[in-house]
Specification:
The chain is mainly beta and about 160 residues long. It has a single domain, classed as Porin (Beta Barrel), CATH 2.40.160. About 5% of the residues lie in helices and about 55% in strands. The protein has a twelve-stranded antiparallel barrel. Strands 1-14 form a two-stranded antiparallel ribbon. Strand 10 (about 100-105) and strand 11 (about 110-120) form a beta hairpin. It is globular.
Length: about 160
């Protein structure tokens, strides 16, 4: 089982809103990063404000890049299911949304975790159901991103 809910598995940026900002916290409430969306581009920063990456959405496909601009992966939506691929095009996982709950699976089909949205707050759980983090959206957008683009450590 993966030790991390990998960033490409945790990304589901179906809804991008201009001026939207998400604050991402670990299981203890400590801020570990932010995601700020302007138009079709989201910029990710760590807790110190350093840019760690970006995502650009065009239609149903989101391309993720590291802080140097190198492509690290993609997410392609098809209905309520998103497929994540690494920079070589190899499938790394999926996310399936049903109502306010998103279930993440590794490429093997094994559970990688889930998220549940309630208003502007999303709670993330590992494959065992333990809370591993939260995010809170603020800004001029009216919607929330389902998941943050960060590595959230999980227990084995």
């Amino acid at each position: 089982m993966s030790r991390f809910l990998i960033a490409t598995i945790l990304l589901l940026t179906a809804t991008a809103f201009c001026g939207e900002r998400e604050t991402i916290r670990d299981a203890h409430g400590k801020v570990v990063g932010t995601a700020t969306t302007d138009g079709n581009k989201t910029v990710y920063r760590d807790a110190h404000g350093k840019v760690t990456g970006a995502a650009t959405t065009n239609g149903n496909k989101t391309t993720y890049r590291d802080s140097s601009g190198r492509t690290t992966g993609t997410a392609t939506e098809n209905g309520n299911r998103t497929t994540f691929r690494d920079s070589t095009g190899k499938a790394t996982g999926t996310a399936t949304t049903n109502g306010n709950r998103t279930t993440f699976r590794e490429a093997t089909g094994a559970s990688a975790g889930s998220s549940t949205s309630n208003g502007n707050r999303t709670t993330y759980r590992d494959a065992h159901g333990s809370i591993v983090g939260t995010s809170t959206s603020t800004g001029s957008g009216s919607g929330t991103s389902q998941t943050p683009p960060i590595l959230i450590p999980t227990s084995k």
